[in-house]
Design a protein that fits this description.
The protein is α+β, with helices and mostly antiparallel strands. The chain is built from 14 helices and seven strands. The protein has helices at 18-38, 43-54, 58-63, 80-90, 142-164, 167-182, 188-200, 206-213, 223-238, 243-250, 313-335, 339-345, 347-356, 358-376; strands spanning 3-7, 10-15, 65-70, 73-78, 93-103, 108-117, 122-131.
Length: 382
């Protein structure tokens, strides 16, 4: 089958050999590598340019951070916006992201991010999974899967860029962005009002915002809380977290709903609400994480017929509780430098998972084994 070769949106050649296309692609990369070696980057200039762009405005600085709730405490870090700035100023590089898998059966979409440093000829690949089941165990529709996939691509690209560009190059710019967002005490009331207005766009009331921050009210919202709140707002904009997940983390432990739809906490397993012990339900499919019966679940659209009653209530609750936990652990493993550190962090949750959802636990153990094998070889588990 003939293939059209385009340049700048115009057809310049037509070839009928796949190997010819491969040679042209390789030649293109070779030219880019040669160009990178001819005009190498200046590290000092890169550092200064990144810092200048990050602090060009307070809004730009705020967009360079994200925040996610974990175990009742926020995890704040560099966002995809900062990654884009870093890649543009690092230069002599190629980057991109794509969806590699949409698994409607097991309920996740997987994205792959690539960062290729042409000057050092080193490449970094990161993969990220995002859940595509709602709290009732139904698969998202096509539009929501697309939105979730875009968010996964952003996260994967961010991880790839920060995995390929040394932290020493952009860390000072990130710290400067934090200081810029904090501002000073003179601007605190105005910026507090602006932050509440921004969160109100997502339907959050002031009392809900204070609960998310873990403070009593407006008077307790200081400069550090504004940085945290700005990170939450950016995470909501980028689709890394939902309002429901934020509110679930903000709820007191004893009042949290039994069904968890967001990130897991780091509480010991024996403090979690547990289902009454019962015999495991017989496996109906090869992978037990499917939320509904295969006969009534359309794998293309995710629609469920009214005749389908799904798994037993206890089994459904176990899946809804532990599938997000397993996906979160896999995501943390993907970005971790030490596999055993992540395993130790979630040891309590994994022990409870083994008791309540042994099949999901077994699948997670296979993933962990793959990461351990890759770490032993000195590589990364894709």
């Amino acid at each position: 089958m003939n293939q059209i070769i385009e340049f700048d949106g115009q057809e310049i050649a037509e070839v009928d050999d796949a190997s010819t296309v491969a040679r042209l692609a390789r030649a293109e990369i070779d030219i880019q590598v040669a160009t990178a070696h001819k005009w190498p980057r200046e590290i000092s200039r890169v550092v200064n340019k990144i810092k200048s762009l990050v602090t060009i405005s307070q809004e730009a600085a705020q967009e360079c951070m994200y925040a996610l709730p974990r175990g009742g405490k926020p995890i704040v870090g560099p966002s995809i916006r900062l990654a884009e700035i870093v890649a543009s100023q690092w230069g002599n590089c190629r980057q991109g992201a794509r969806i590699v898998d949409v698994d409607r059966k097991n309920g996740f979409v997987e994205a792959e991010g690539l960062f290729h440093d042409l000057e050092s000829n080193s490449a970094t690949v990161k993969r990220v999974r995002r859940r595509i089941f709602d709290k009732n165990g139904k698969c998202f529709n096509d539009d929501m899967i697309l939105v979730t996939g875009n968010a996964a691509c952003s996260i994967a690209l961010r991880n790839a860029i920060f995995g390929g560009v040394p932290k020493a190059v952009w860390n000072e710019a990130y710290k400067t962005a934090e200081r810029t967002v904090k501002g000073d005490i003179k601007t605190l009331p105005e910026r507090r009002t602006a932050a509440l207005t921004a969160m109100a766009a997502f339907g959050l009331k002031p009392e809900q915002v204070w609960a998310i921050l873990g403070i009593a009210g407006e008077k307790d919202c200081g400069l550090d809380q504004l940085v945290e709140l700005g990170g939450y707002h950016q995470s909501l904009k980028d689709g890394e977290i939902t309002v429901e997940q934020l509110l679930a983390e903000a709820a007191p432990e004893e009042k949290r709903p039994e069904r968890q739809t967001g990130s897991i906490t780091n509480r010991p397993a024996d403090t979690r609400a547990r289902e009454p012990e019962q015999k495991p339900a017989p496996k109906k499919e090869e992978t037990p994480a499917a939320p509904v019966n295969e006969t009534a679940h359309d794998p293309e659209t995710g629609e469920v017929t009214e005749e389908d009653t799904g798994p037993a209530p206890a089994q459904m609750r176990a899946m809804e509780k532990w599938i997000p936990v397993a996906n979160t652990i896999k995501a943390d493993l993907d970005g971790a430098s030490d596999v055993e550190e992540v395993v130790e962090l979630y040891a309590g949750q994994m022990l409870a998972m083994k008791a309540e959802a042994p099949d999901i636990h077994a699948d997670l153990e296979k993933e962990i084994a793959a990461y351990r094998e890759a770490a032993a070889k000195g590589g990364e588990a894709d």
